[in-house]
Amino acid sequence: MEPKGQPQAKDTFMSAITWTNVRSRVRESKIPPVYGILIVVFVAAVVLDAIFGRGQITSGTILTNMVVRSVALGIVAMGQTFVMLGASIDLSVAYLISVTAVMASYLMQGDPARVPLAVTAVFAIGGVVGLINGLIVSKLKVNPFIATLGVGLVLKGILNASFETFVGAVPRSFQTLGYGTLGPIPISILVLLAVTIVSALVLSRTRFGSHLYAVGGSEITSRLSGLRTDRVLILAHVVCSLTAVLTGLFVVSRLRSGAPWVGTDGLYDLESIAAVVVGGTALSGGKGGVVGTLAGVLIFGVLDTMFNQLGVDTFLKQVLRGAIIILAVASYTIRSREKAA
Amino acid sequence: MAHISTTAQERSLWDRLVNGLRNIAPIYVVLILLLIGIGTQNPTFLEPAGFLNLLRRAAPLMVLTAGQLFVIVTGGFDLSVGSMMSLTVIGASLLINNDPANTWWVILVLFGIGIFVGLLNGLIVSYLNVPSLIATLGMLLALRGAGLYWTGGAPRGYLTDNFRMFGRGWLEPFPMIERFPYAVLVLIVVSAAAIYLFNQTNLGKQLLAIGDNPRASRLAGIRVEKMRIVAFVLSAVTAVIAGILQGGFGGVNPDAGEGYELQAISAAVLGGAVLLGGRGSMPAAIAGALALEALFTLLNLLGLPKPLRDAVQGLIIIGAVAYAAYRSRRTR
User: Fold this and answer.
1) B78, B250 contact by CB (below 8 A)
2) Interface contact A220, partner B, CB < 8 A
3) B32: helix, coil or strand?
4) What is the pLDDT of residues A254-282, one digit of tens each?
5) A140 interaction partners in chain B (CB closer than 8 Å)
């Protein structure tokens, strides 16, 4: 995909700004192609809103809201990117988000002093769930689709057997995560940015990151080259579960209290996978990255906001969403020689 | 390892027995154990009437799994079937509009919608090269939205008795056992057709070949795109049948098919199908669906609350697949 020969810096500097020039520069900068789709979707949203809506979509409040809505999905989608780069998948995240939301508000009981305990506890739970997912996938060789679906069912069962509705509450101070601002910028947006940047750095600058791409590209080759592929995959699953926990904490900080259905109702499992694939990460692993995923998530955010501004029926929104997921992925798979399954 | 004293003939007999047992798909053993378990809890389930009732309740999932297997062996998934089931139930209640005379053409229309959805899934996967996981996930969202949009959020009306007959009706009188559920009749017909298509026609072999190696299949002259589309259409058609059965059994419910897509995939995998294609057995997959329903029944009889049944289901699915993976590593 990447252009082979890199033009000399001098040439690029001297030549006039032509379309091809801009295009090759964009390619060199390694901006994933999904940003093109994001721009198209955004422009379409602005135009449609100007014609049929109130023309307010470019206002600061709405733009900020758009991103804040994307935060919950965005954080877990970063983790989902890790496992999908390793040619695995995690269907248990939605249930883990529910578990986190419920356990956090149950343990906090509205008492600010109990926040550290609750946060430590839910991250510990997440770590264990990720470890179990990773062990089942890598050591027992269970297809990740089935493995994480099974773990999700177990989480769902335990959760629903223990809690029926909203339990406990998070203290007001904890809601800063969901509603607070730092200057003009909502803290939630900063959290999403931080998670994205850290993930991008882990993937591009650490040994684990390179190994993950290698394992996703070809598990056998990596193993024969001496990589401990199992460990890489397990770590990716742990990372994914930890991001799900962070999403759960964000969700509960906005809802004030956790209920067993908050994760599954948000469709975080399927939507995070969709966001990752729309963002350009291959389902077969080894290709893509979190920067693309961010754009995938933002596309969903723009669409949601546009539908709201235009007053599109809630159910029709789902239909359009489904269609757009397919079209977005089709826009770059349609040219690929490789046949999908 | 063999005992020195064993004569050749004895050994061969023993070996044959062991080999024979090894070749039985483990799902049948699991199924028999589950049925024995059910029998110890409530023997009426093993009497003809009780067993037919169990089959009747399992029929939607078994039919759905048969369809799902066609897609799974090609290396794909069909996540849209649960929504398709719900849409069938919703569509039936709206189109029949409480008039039994409408039932027959409505059923035809529902099959038409199903075939259209299957075609669309197949075309998207085959010609837009979208991975089936994403294509059918998009379809899942779209169909769910479409169903709810159609009803305006709350389903109206009810399903007429002649529509519900398939799901909950009994054929009376019936020789030997007084009455026989229509749903099981449908199940037998669909299973027989699916097994015939899968085992006796080129279709099944071609689908398996595509799942095993799409490039080689293409070079061997299989029309890969067309066959994939056929698989998705078959899957969608079984979803309509499952929806009709489920609607008959459970009445109007906009979530009638929710979660069924993952159960069908789990059932096929329990029956030895390999995700990402190339391996699968139709009778074993259908038995897998029955085993899953038998498991629910057993857990219910044991008095486990519904949530814990989910947890046990999760553990058993993982365990079964881990065991299958272990077996295939050992034999290799």
Assistant:
1) no
2) no
3) helix
4) 998 888 888 888 889 888 999 999 998 98
5) 318, 322, 325-326
